[in-house]
Specification:
alpha/beta, six-stranded mixed sheet, single chain, Hypothetical Protein, Haloacid Dehalogenase-like Hydrolase, Chain: A, domain 2
Length: about 260
């Protein structure tokens, strides 16, 4: 198989738990970014994916908000986005209010959150909102944050039974807790991968995807060659074509150097 593009998760794949990118990973990505498109697909917001695309020198389409938004890294123009419906937003926020959960809700022009501003570095386009106030906005993604593994699984199961919207849990390497991401029906990282392939005019069967958590599974399922990081859940690793070392062991650099680059010719 000849590889024509590389899709990468951010947290736990590119970024270590301390939020740093190792020199070996930077060097590996630099060695291929002019040869094939390298695209980040992350649950983080638009500003974050553009920041890391800039750090890594990427110019191709990138995806944020758990697959619901695609943005050009070169022009910063939003190329495609799908918002949650009003019904979905109300359903999610009512549940999070009942459970008194922290949330982080994204839109192409900013963020709404009820997390205490003293606990994070607040950006200029972030609005502090409670669950009811946030209902006035249209969001591409809403995440319940800082959950235990058990609470995340229970919330995922409960909400999946109430609606057809996409519900996926994701590990947060930077604090060891979990998030549950909500996006519109059938919108996930696999959807974003498909749209990116359309924008690039390429076949997903020639793509490599690398991820480490449950929300990466739709992306790994739709490409020609899937890679699970060594820090991925066992159930996810069992379905991957290749298992890399952990992010702390610079697994992504190894995959690029020993798997992707030999597959370019």
């Amino acid at each position: 198989m000849k590889f024509e593009a590389l899709l990468l998760d951010l947290d736990g794949t590119i970024l270590r738990p301390d939020q740093a990118i190792s020199d070996d990973v930077v060097k590996a990505i630099s060695s291929i970014r002019e040869r094939i498109p390298v695209c980040i697909l992350t649950g983080r917001e638009l500003a974050e994916v553009l920041h890391y695309a800039s750090v890594l020198g990427l110019k191709t389409p990138q995806s944020c908000d758990a697959g619901s938004t695609i943005v050009s890294a070169s022009s910063h123009k939003v190329l495609w986005a799908v918002s949650l419906s009003t019904h979905e937003v109300n359903l999610i926020l009512n549940e999070l209010k009942t459970s008194r959960l922290e949330f982080f809700a994204t839109r192409p022009d900013g963020v709404n959150t009820n997390i205490d501003s003293d606990s994070y570095e607040k950006k200029s386009n972030w609005i502090n909102s409670d669950w009811d106030d946030a209902k006035r906005y249209k969001f591409t993604r809403i995440s319940a944050l800082n959950l235990s593994a058990r609470d995340a699984s229970e919330l995922e199961d409960r909400m999946s039974c109430l609606s057809n919207m996409n519900v996926a849990k994701a590990f947060l390497p930077y604090n060891g807790l979990w998030a549950v991401d909500f996006t519109h029906d059938n919108v996930n990282k696999g959807t974003a991968a498909t749209k990116i392939a359309e924008f690039l005019g390429q076949d997903l069967g020639s793509f490599v995807a690398v991820g480490d958590s449950y929300n990466d599974m739709p992306m790994l399922d739709c490409v020609g060659f899937s890679v699970a990081m060594g820090n991925a859940p066992d159930s996810m690793a069992a379905l991957a074509d290749y298992i890399a070392p952990t992010v702390e062991e610079d697994g992504l650099a190894m995959v690029i150097n020993e798997v992707v680059i030999p597959g370019l010719s």
